[in-house]
Amino acid sequence: xxxxxxxxxxxxxxxxxxxxxxxxxxxxxxxxxxxxxxxxxxxxxxxxxxxxxxxxxxxxxxxxxxxxxxxxxxxxxxxxxxxxxxxxxxxxxxxxxxxxxxxxxxxxxxxxxxxxxxxxxxxxxxxxxxxxxxxxxxxxxxxxxxxxxxxxxxxxxxxxxxxxxxxxxxxxxxxxxxxxxxxxxxxxxxxxxxxxxxxxxxxxxxxxxxxxxxxxxxxxxxxxxxxxxxxxxxxxxxxxxxxxxxxxxxxxxxxxxxxxxxxxxxxxxxxxxxxxxxxxxxxxxxxxxxxxxxxxxxxxxxxxxxxxxxxxxxxxxxxxxxxxxxxxxxxxxxxxxxxxxxxxxxxxxxxxxxxxxxxxxxxxxxxxxxxxxxxxxxxxxxxxxxxxxxxxxxxxxxxxxxxxxxxxxxxxxxxxxxxxxxxxxxxx
Amino acid sequence: xxxxxxxxxxxxxxxxxxxxxxxxxxxxxxxxxxxxxxxxxxxxxxxxxxxxxxxxxxxxxxxxxxxxxxxxxxxxxxxxxxxxxxxxxxxxxxxxxxxxxxxxxxxxxxxxxxxxxxxxxxxxxxxxxxxxxxxxxxxxxxxxxxxxxxxxxxxxxxxxxxxxxxxxxxxxxxxxxxxxxxxxxxxxxxxxxxxxxxxxxxxxxxxxxxxxxxxxxxxxxxxxxxxxxxxxxxxxxxxxxxxxxxxxxxxxxxxxxxxxxxxxx
Lengths: 428, 265
What we know:
The structure holds two protein chains of two kinds.
Chain A lengths: L1 H7 L14 E2 L2 E2 L4 H4 L8 H6 L56 E5 L5 E5 L15 H9 L3 E6 L9 E6 L2 E13 L4 E10 L1 E11 L4 E10 L4 E10 L4 E10 L2 E10 L5 E10 L4 E10 L5 E10 L5 E10 L7 E10 L5 E10 L6 E10 L2 H8 L5 H17 L5 H17 L3
Parallel strand pairs in A: 5-7, 6-8, 7-9, 8-10, 9-11, 10-12, 11-13, 12-14, 13-15, 14-16, 15-17, 16-18, 17-19, 18-20
Antiparallel strand pairs in A: 1-2, 3-6, 4-5
Helix pairs in contact in A: 6-7
Chain B lengths: L2 E13 L2 E14 L3 E5 L6 H9 L5 E9 L2 E2 L5 H7 L1 E4 L11 H13 L5 H14 L17 H15 L3 E5 L7 H16 L4 E6 L12 E6 L2 E6 L1 H10 L10 H12 L1
Parallel strand pairs in B: 3-8, 3-9, 6-7, 7-8
Antiparallel strand pairs in B: 1-2, 1-4, 4-5, 9-10
């Protein structure tokens, strides 16, 4: 009895046994598996269990329990009821989840400084699977069907001047699979731009390995034609003290679904995940990200901003951040902001933060979806600003925060112009 | 010399219960250099008058006219009115996401003047005006009114008044929600703008407090959508002592006007 009283008086201090099942001194234990299996999903036992039916003892609601597998057969056919597909209009996937992806993949054309190694390799290359594992059926379908992969390597300690430009040009509407591997070797520093254009129906896997001490920025631009359908799983694995900046810009395409995942494998690493999207009438632009804090003392910062205009413009943002029990000292923040410019548009925003340890530096999430409404317009116009200028002023200012983070002047300029075009397109 | 003339203005709004008439025949003439105070109890239509002059879409003008130097203000869009020289300092300034103060002020000034202000003098003007209104310099980097306190929003309205130099300023309860220090700062700003000699001022207020700092030439008492009494600054003093009670709301305005005319005679 005396012992228990003492323990109660020491709330917050480590205790030998929990008082309540499922609770520890850090609060509710969301994922009982983690005590035993303390590695990231790519690293062993946890994966194998997850691969066959969602893991053992992990609640469905936890991102840690999400099925991951290289095999398409492990993923059940989609019904649209799945947590990660519930916002996506499956009919508009044009077979990416059901067909054999045998169409011609978007043509890859790379402009890179000599110091960067560019290879086209077969399916058996050892680097394939080094940084990613499919997290959904469409990604697994691409993994099973891609014919060859493009591997971009920034060698150790090389600092690349200018950016590595990867132009991906769609080859038509036959469902296809694409695979890209980006390796930033130790202490290298570089910027890679994935520039998606043309018409395609493609499921794409992008594996990104950022080795110890390396700094890499990946900018993924989706400026597809109006009829394109694009699912892109972009997964990064970070070594010790690695720094990764990811910027997703989705403007064009009928349906674009980008699912970035970041996994920490050693302490001291840092990710910044930024996104910008602008949905017009009828467009579905979806982004679902996952930050897996599986080791101690890593940082993540997430900011996605979107604008919507026109009937049935639909955007989805889901941000899953998981701080595992061993990820002490984690510092993370995620935010999503949407600006709805007209009636008839819909923005879904779901920030999820799972925290399995209280010993962290900081964790926060925020989401706000606001209208550009008549009051804003009245205020600006009452200061002499014409309506079209007022609208542009607001949207440009809102999205500029992301554009400024790109730091590649040519692309910043291009995106600013693209946003202007979006605004002009519907007489705003 | 400019003239803003309001003649027999009737204004209604659409509510869930149907159309409701708020202004029931308002006439008012303001000239450059004059300061008019409009005073009245809550719900008397003071703010409706201000918003209608600025062109807020919520208010429907059913009859009457507003002209600025003979030009039909009612035919102008909201932005055209501002460019013609009308400025409304709002009771509840709106937060505009995504637009920095710097960008906003420059864009508005460019629209009003028809040409971009010279960068060097403009930056200096903004800085000085901000300092005089005791607005922190870092406000220029913040989004328009976003996260500003009530007092800060009002000061930023007056900042715009000083920078945009309108022909007529309409101040819609600029004094409400201000503490004494802020009230002084804001009043000084209005007096500076007015003192340049090119502006007429329409000061709408519930309280007489601000009239200690801004001296009106004319006072109009508003009750139930009509002007029920007009006079000089002495009328404000009387209101301070007696309040609005003697203008029993709901009673026919004509009766009150007649009664007060009789009282004055």
